[in-house]
Design a protein that fits this description.
The chain is of the alpha/beta class. It contains 14 helices and eight strands. Strands 7-6-5-4-3-2-1-8 form an eight-stranded parallel β-sheet. The protein binds phosphoenolpyruvate and magnesium ion.
């Protein structure tokens, strides 16, 4: 079966009724980028830069970051690369930058930390921009955004980095595509304003689920409650893609859900057409999505959204997946 899936990788993902789906990979370690991007994905949908920061003993400098980002972009050929700015805090600690707080998941995480330390943020942005000079691959992704001021401020720093580099290097460094992670539920209700500011949205379904359900995603005592198939979570995901389509804001999903057969089926049924997942899931998801049709999926989704629990959703959509092999 695995071999059968693997052969599928040479096919682009097109559903039975002709809808093109874009499948990207999540990555974070340079050592894994070569083999991962050598595959037939449509690009890197999430490059977690924090991994680099987590394996070091101190903050990596501009040159060090630049060299690594350059290799990542090169490994992706001419395919797009979504580089997420530093997303530490919460469950991702840095030994050399301890954060002590009572509720880390509600605390100093992601963009909050970068905006409070512009000197670190600017180094990272400058490194990304320099790595991408001469190509259009770079997409900068801002994690854990919870209000519009954060987006506006991040854009000001990005513009500053472009201007500095243009002056220093004597060639025009232009703004890359910029997007935000949709992880904090409140932004679901401000997607119209988000659309005026950025080029794309990427749903972090791991954090979005955690914050919608008020369940710490790493706490074993409440792990049965962490459920991305909770019909309420599914309705939120459907709401997000519908709003983004309305505002012509490209949207993808890069949380674990996108790499799970049941999750991928539901997301495509809702209207998503870009999924980013671990390399290991790619062939299987491609196999599955090439065998479904939107008409079938519409019916399945309507049924799923009427169910009362994640367990019932898994049962229903799991049966459908089995029929597809
Ligand atoms: C997410 O929250 O779904 C996500 C992709 O980000 P991370 O898992 O790295 O927090
Ligand atoms: Mg996240």
């Amino acid at each position: 079966q695995q071999r059968q899936y693997a052969q599928e990788l040479s096919f682009k993902t097109v559903t039975q009724d002709g809808k093109r789906i874009y499948l990207y990979i999540n990555s974070g370690l340079l050592s894994s980028v070569d083999s991962e991007t050598g595959s037939d994905s449509d690009g890197i949908g999430l490059y977690r830069t924090e991994i680099l920061f987590m394996i070091k003993q101190c903050f990596p400098g501009e040159i060090e970051q630049l060299e690594i980002y350059r290799k990542v972009l090169k490994a992706a050929g001419d395919k797009p690369v979504v580089m997420r700015t530093l997303d530490v805090g919460g469950d991702k600690p840095l030994d050399y930058f301890p954060i002590v707080e009572d509720n880390p998941f509600l605390g100093w995480r992601g963009i909050r930390l970068s905006l409070d330390h512009p000197e670190l943020f600017l180094i990272q942005l400058r490194a990304m921009l320099q790595a991408a000079i001469g190509s259009e691959q770079l997409h900068v992704l801002l994690p854990m955004v919870s209000n519009l001021e954060e987006v506006d401020l991040a854009l000001i720093y990005l513009d500053q980095a472009c201007q500095e580099l243009t002056a220093e290097l004597g060639k025009t460094v232009t703004m890359p595509k910029v997007g935000i992670m949709l992880e904090v539920p409140v932004l679901l209700y401000q997607l119209d304003e988000v659309a005026k500011r950025v080029d794309f949205v990427s749903v972090g379904s791991n954090d979005l689920t955690q914050y919608l359900l008020a369940v710490d995603r790493n706490n074993p005592s409440v792990s049965p409650l962490f459920d991305s198939y909770h019909p309420g979570v599914l309705r939120a995901l459907k709401f997000a893609v519908e709003r983004c389509n309305e505002y012509q804001l490209p949207i993808s999903v890069c949380g674990e859900l996108a790499g799970e057969p049941i999750g991928a089926i539901l997301l495509i049924a809702m209207g998503y057409d870009q999924l980013s997942m671990n390399q290991a899931s790619l062939a299987r998801i491609n196999y599955l999505l090439r065998r479904v049709s939107q008409t079938e999926l519409n019916q399945l989704l309507a049924q799923a959204l009427k169910l009362n629990s994640g367990e019932e959703v898994r049962l229903l959509v799991g049966q459908y997946c089995e029929q597809k092999g």
